[in-house]
């Protein structure tokens, strides 16, 4: 059985049982204990699980899904969030558009406005070109999993511009932990964008709340948040929640 398939099975077991032993996995996957240990170590490094004596448990830290998985999730909510976000864009704004699926929905709603867009999302290029929106791309190292450009070259470009408004994705939002994402390199990009923006909006559907990822990039009071619904009443008291789709 190939590695990807083994990891899918391990993840499925953990989602149901929360914990699993090495013995269970060797029997289920019909492979050696040493192979399972390597799989678990790799998955722990990606934030999917935490190894414990004799097995593993599901991690409390959110792991990062690839772009293909994200594209098919919560599309209606993402569309609504993107439409509402577009109403905050003014003529002649310089806009930073973070890599991600929700921010990509925003592009078509900008086509009627005279704006300049800076982005680190390679999957945004086609849409921006389609609507002939004036655009700049950061350059940098390509992160294949999310389609984001990261690293020192991306940071250099981001720091050379000032943004009227920025739209940023977040894997996780938590009352105490703030805004977090699994990758420290992407976290640094988002942090710099917030610092260089007059106002920053986090675009995130309800599934991103009450989760914590590995790398923090901002506090809730530094941004405004647009989401589809709030399932935890504690967030209603946060002044940074700009809009909630009803």
Explain how this protein is built.
The chain is built from 9 helices and 15 strands. The chain has helices at 3-17, 22-29, 33-45, 67-71, 75-86, 101-106, 125-130, 152-159, 184-195, and strands at 19-21, 49-52, 55-58, 94-97, 116-119, 134-137, 141-143, 148-150, 165-169, 172-174, 178-181, 200-203, 215-218, 224-227, 241-244. The strands form 4 sheets. Strands 6-5-4-9-12-14-15 form a 7-stranded parallel sheet, with helices on both faces. β7 and β8 form a beta hairpin. α8 packs parallel to α9 (184-195). The radius of gyration is 19 Å and the shape is elongated. It starts with a helix and ends with a strand. 37% of the residues are buried. The mean pLDDT is 87.
What distance lies between the first and last C-alpha atoms, to the nearest angstrom? 46 Å
Gyration radius, to the nearest Å? Answer: 19 Å
| Quantity of strands, as a count | 15
| Helix content range | 25-40%
- Strand order across the largest sheet: 6-5-4-9-12-14-15
Ranges with pLDDT <50 over ≥5 residues?
none
Order of helices and strands: HEHHEEHHEHEHEEEHEEEHEEEE
Question: How would you describe this structure in keywords?
Answer:
single chain; about 250 residues; alpha/beta; seven-stranded parallel β-sheet; three-stranded antiparallel β-sheet; 15 strands; about 35% helix; elongated
Question: TL;DR?
Answer:
This protein is of the alpha/beta class. It is 35% helix and 23% strand. The chain has a 7-stranded parallel sheet with strand order 6-5-4-9-12-14-15, sandwiched between helices.
């Amino acid at each position: 059985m190939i590695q990807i398939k083994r990891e899918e099975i391990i993840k499925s077991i953990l989602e149901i049982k929360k914990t699993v032993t090495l013995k269970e996995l060797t029997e289920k996957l019909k492979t050696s204990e040493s192979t399972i240990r390597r799989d678990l170590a790799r998955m722990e490094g990606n934030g999917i699980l935490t190894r414990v004596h004799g097995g593993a448990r599901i991690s409390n830290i959110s792991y990062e899904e690839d772009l293909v998985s994200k594209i098919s999730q919560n599309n209606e909510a993402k569309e609504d969030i993107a439409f509402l976000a577009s109403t905050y864009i003014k003529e002649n704004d310089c806009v930073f558009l973070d890599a991600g699926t929700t921010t990509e929905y925003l592009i078509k709603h900008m086509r009627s406005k005279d704006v300049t867009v800076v982005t680190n999302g390679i999957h945004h290029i086609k849409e921006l070109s389609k609507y002939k929106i004036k655009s700049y791309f950061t350059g940098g190292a390509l992160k294949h999993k999310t389609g984001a450009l990261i690293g020192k070259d991306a940071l250099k470009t981001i720091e050379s511009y000032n943004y009227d408004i920025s739209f940023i994705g977040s894997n996780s939002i938590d009352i105490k932990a703030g805004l977090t994402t699994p990758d420290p390199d992407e976290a640094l990009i988002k942090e710099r964008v917030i610092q260089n923006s007059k106002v920053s909006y986090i675009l995130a559907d309800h599934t991103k709340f009450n989760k914590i990822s590995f790398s923090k990039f901002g506090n809730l009071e530094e941004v405004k948040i647009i989401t589809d619904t709030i399932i935890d009443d504690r967030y209603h008291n946060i002044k940074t929640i700009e809009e909630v789709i009803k």
